[in-house]
Amino acid sequence: MTPSTHHTHSTANTPAAEARTTLVTGGTGKTGRRVAARLTERGLPVRIASRGGGTPFVWEEPDTWDGALDGVGAVYLSYYPDLAFPGAAETVGAFAERAVAKGVHRLVLLSGRGEEGALISEGKVRSSGADVTVVRASWFNQNFDEGFFLEPVLAGELALPTGDAVEPFVDVDDVADVAVAALTDDRHIGRTYELSGPRLIGFAEIAGELSRATGREITYAPVTLEEYRDFLLSVGAPADFADLFELINDGRNAHVVNGVEEVLGRRPRDFTDFAADVARTGVWRP
After folding, report:
1. What are phi and psi of 12, to 5 degrees?
2. Of 40, 173, 231, 234, which sits most exposed with the smallest number of CB within 10 A?
3. Is the peptide bond between 81 and the residue preceding it cis, with omega within 30 degrees of 0?
4. What pairs with residue 56 in β-bridges?
5. Closest CA relative to residue 115, chosen from 191, 194, 27, 174
6. Count of other CB atoms within 10 angstroms of residue 102
7. For the chain, how far is it from start to end, CA to CA, in angstroms?
8. pLDDT score of 127 more than 50
């Protein structure tokens, strides 16, 4: 992580941010839609790029890139399915080069903590010639209500290949706040921020937190990586997702980092507060 100079959070936009349109890739996804909403709330021009959106954008189809990039000055770069997956670095690197060639000056890249494959992607984005900020996030709280852990929560059993491992889950609202700060404040140019929540939490503890929040029993059942890979294939999800569990199981990210405080000047949101807020929405009622 870069040297820890403390930034106080400013809601003022830099003059450059006022004038430019920001392209939000993955603009309907967990982080993208929140980034787009925050920029819009500030009165900043936003273009939402997604596979089925008004600005069609598909990572695997480079001929969709130019239309999305026309007249854009900044990009929030969130790659799907994951920067660590095979081929991601080449695709993201080619996109960053194309963006700069089209006049984009500012790139904010969402990356993952401790992902070797993601480091290659980060390097390719940095070498594009743009002003780059990298935001490396821990696993999201919102995986449990907007992502691939939602079905297990509804079924009442988190059957996952995570043993006794712990992870400092981060809230997507915090990630979006950091990304927007990076997109609108030039002090973040050239920086890399690592984001986590305020504490380490294991999956058995998460099952307990979700049980308390929902008022029904949710259990944690450890499974093997092979069993989980079979499950992913059975539901049509990329089997490569199973490999991401190594990032939790080997303990490489089993420590809290301070990027949220560094950028925003406040503590990150706790899982307990996230669970209480989501439970009130009814999303976890089977």
Report:
1. -75, 140
2. 234
3. yes
4. 50
5. 194
6. 17
7. 41
8. yes
